[in-house]
Specification:
Layout (H helix, E strand, L loop, with lengths): L1 H21 L2 E6 L4 H16 L3 E6 L13 H4 L9 H10 L3 E4 L3 H5 L11 E2 L2 H9 L3 E5 L1
Parallel strand pairs: 1-2, 1-5, 2-3, 3-4
Helix pairs in contact: 2-4
Length: 143
C-alpha cells in the first residue's frame, strides 16, 4: 500500500509543479516617447494577457505620460490599423486584470501627485517592483 501512496504523492507534486510552471508572469516596461512603439507594447502585452499571462505594466519617463488624465495627444490619438490609442488599449489591459503603475519617481519628476493619473493606475513601490522583475518565473519586456 505504501507504493500507491508514494505514487499518489509524487503525482500530486508533479501536478502542482506543472500548474506553477504554467502561470506565466510578465512585466512590460514602457519608457519610449514614440506612440507607435507605445501602442505595440500594449498590443503585445494584451496578447500575453489573452494567452494567460499575469501582466504588470511599468510606465517610466515619457511612457508614464500614458497614465495621465491630461495625456498628450500622442498617447490618446487613434492609430492604424484599428484606430486604437496607446492609452485606450492600456485601459483594456487594465480591464482584463493587468496592473499598471508609473515609476515611483515619475510623478515627483513631473511635480504632480497621484490625482494626475487616470483611474486604476498606481505608483510602483521599488521593493515590490524589483521583486516582480527578479522573479525567475517572470519575463520582462522593455519598450
Amino acid at each position: 500500500m505504501k507504493p500507491i501512496i508514494l505514487a499518489a504523492a509524487a503525482a500530486a507534486a508533479l501536478a502542482a509543479a506543472s500548474a506553477a510552471a504554467e502561470e506565466r508572469k510578465l512585466v512590460s516596461v514602457v519608457t519610449t516617447p514614440e506612440p507607435q512603439t507605445q501602442l505595440m507594447a500594449m498590443v503585445l502585452t494584451m496578447q500575453a494577457v489573452q494567452q494567460g499571462a499575469k501582466a504588470h505594466v511599468l510606465l517610466c519617463g515619457p511612457g508614464g505620460d500614458l497614465a495621465l488624465r491630461d495625456a498628450p495627444a500622442s498617447a490618446t490619438a487613434p492609430q492604424p490599423p484599428r484606430d486604437m490609442s496607446p492609452q485606450g488599449l492600456m485601459g483594456k489591459i487594465m480591464e482584463a486584470g493587468a496592473i499598471v503603475e508609473v515609476c515611483a519617481i515619475y510623478l515627483p519628476g513631473k511635480g504632480a501627485g497621484p490625482e494626475a493619473l487616470i483611474d486604476g493606475v498606481g505608483v510602483a513601490q521599488p521593493p515590490a517592483m524589483a521583486g516582480a522583475m527578479m522573479d525567475p518565473e517572470t519575463r520582462v519586456w522593455s519598450f
